[in-house]
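In the current project phase, the collection of sequences with tokenised folds has grown. A representative record is quoted in full directly below:
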Amino acid sequence: MSTIASIAEVKARLSELVSLVLLRGDRVVVARRGRPVAALVGLGDLRRLEALDAEQATGTKPERHPVMTAFGAWSGGDDWDRLLADICAERTVARGRDLPR
């Protein structure tokens, strides 16, 4: 969940907002004159951003999380046929029927 807070609000509620980030994993967008200018994020988010920056700087790609695979960041092109065959085999066994080809 993201919260938007003005700089004045962040100054007044810094401890509370840091607790939201730490305990609930919230992200706080800091606004100046109604425009987003910064954010308070957890260390996990910061580490992921730093890893992405390093990836872009070096041109290397770390192993993708399985969820990223589901959303189109598939890194193993040769595995696709094997994965599809495994899914079809599991569905055939589970339903007791052949799948259309």
Notes: The chain has four helices and three strands. Residues 7-24 form the longest helix (18 residues). The first strand starts at residue 2 and ends at 6.
